[in-house]
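Thread title: Can someone regenerate the structure for this chain?

I was given the following input by a collaborator and told the matching structure tokens would be attached. They weren't. Posting the sequence so someone can regenerate them.
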Amino acid sequence: MVQNAVKPNKTVASPIATYETMAPTWTRNRAIMAGERYIKDHDSVPDIGHNLLIPFSPSMTPEQYAFFKAEAETPGIVSTYVKMMIGGLLRKPPQLTLPEGIPEEAKNWLLNEFGEDGCTLSAFLDECLAEELTTSRAWIHVDYPSINADALTVEQLKAAKPFPVVISAESVINWRLEKDPISGERKLTQVIVRVYEERFNEAHEFHTDIVSICYVHELVDGYYRIRKFEKTSPETNVPVVSGTVHQDYANKAEPQYVEVEVIENILMNNERLRFIPLWPLNGSYDIIEPVMNPLIEKEVHLYNKMSRRNHLLYNTATYTPVISTDMVDEEFDKMVSQGLGTWIKLRQGDTASVLEVPSDSLEWYNLSISAAIEEMAKLGIRMLTPETTQSGVALDIRNAAQNAQIGTLSMKVCATLRAIFTFMLNWRYGYDLKVADVNVSLSTDFNTTTGSVEWLKLATQWYESGLIPRSAWLLLLKRNDMLEPDYDDGAGSVEITNDELVITKREQQGIDESFKNNGA
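Best answer:
Regenerated them for you:
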């Protein structure tokens, strides 16, 4: 069956079928990552096919489901795990190595003034990694401020610099890859990004209109250009979930979009760009299954089990008195209004058995919940269920599967950052750097080859024996927090030389030789 056939009601704002197959997964993952408020806003009405918290039956009323949601309990395990992963990768400042001759100003810019708002590289990566772990579809677009070079001073021109922008998975609704006729490599030739933009209206002094915009990034005759399409009327019903605008771009009948601007002649050092400056953070243009999906699916099941357990707990917290009498209803109502629990009135001569609480069901639910948590721990979340007195990081380092996952993610992110850094340096300073000229690495806390005192002692012996260079030895010390990441070896060597209380190894050897020659 052809799912992506062009229909008459499709416009530039209509997502492709590949996008639509993953959009519900991204929405579910965002709800799990955002926490209880987002999850319960996601499940607005009883819907067995789409809700995270499954209703008891299709006939469940909205009121009954609202009461059930009030009892529901979200574990919050995966979101905590993701924060731990990001914190581990960014606990130390990223290491950046540039070729000789690049000014220190350039390195400071990339590390400390990287973002559009001047944020640090670590702060920018915090946002990027959260999007990547949620959807495995984070994109980075490198933009440049629109400036008139003739009207600016030299200082203002120096301040103008390219900057990165994080694009969420839901915003990239369409893309096209074509093979290069010469190299045979697949090349990104078109990307359509759909976003909501706020626009002030003179009729409203304090509030803005929300306008749906589509940006078409494309290569035409081998050159990069951007076309801007705008919806003919402002949005009147933008979904907001827990304070965040929800981008729900379902493939439905879209209103007309008109082209309002074409940006051509996008120059880089007086030459037109010949590629689209958009990078997926994981390096894959094709959609891949989000890396957290197995754990998120387990948490959704755990969420349902815990919520049903809580529902049973409320039932066990009540009791049901039974009275067999022929009293009139008025007297019975008066007695019920003075007591607690749920009353049942039987006719004279009728009997009723004891209404037992569902204690057995509670026990089985608790066993099932414990098994689910243990299963998630085996998948990698060991630090959330520690069985010893060791720290969470120590437990984490011992988990081979988790190390492999974090290490692979770090490798992909660093490869993308190298390409982005190279492009930004060339654009701002007019260099002709290659990707191989730039090196970047994130924290190696989860690398099993670091963190051992024995390994560091062995590496020091290798250095003293001349088996490894000093730079490799210093890198190991920095990665294990024995030296600051920005430690300057040249300045340190000068300080050691000028310190009168320090006797170098060569001086000590000279003293030993002197004693040997003059000695006993």
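The chain is about 40% helix and 15% strand.
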